[in-house]
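Onboarding guide, step 5: your first structure request.
Type a short instruction followed by the sequence, for example:

Predict the 3D structure of this protein.
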Amino acid sequence: MGIFDNKYFKPFKNIYLVILVLFVIWMLFSDAHSLLFHHELNTEIDELEYQKEHYNNEIEKDKKAIKELSTEDGIERTARENYNMKKSDEDIFIIEYEDSIAKQKQDE
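The system replies with C-alpha cells like these:
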C-alpha cells in the first residue's frame, strides 16, 4: 500500500497536476510578479495618489496667496493682519479675548 493509494492523494498521481500546483504556488508567492508584490505596489500607488492630491491642493492654496499678494492692497492687508505692521502715523491696538488668552497660557 503506497502513499498515493489514499483517496486524498490520488489526484497527485498525475505529474501534470503536481507541476501545475507547484507552478501556481510559485506564481502566487515566490515570483517577482507575485500577488503579494502586486498588493504592495498597489498600496504604494494609492498612498502616492493621496499625496499627489494633497500637494495639488496645497499648490492651489499657494496660487491663491500669490494672486492675493500680487496687488498692493493684498500686501498691505497681509502685513497688517499677519505681521502687525503699521504706517508711521498709525497706532495699532490688539484686542485679545479671554478665551484666546487662556489657550495661549495652556499652550506654553
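Each response can be followed by summary notes, for example: The chain has a mean pLDDT of 82.
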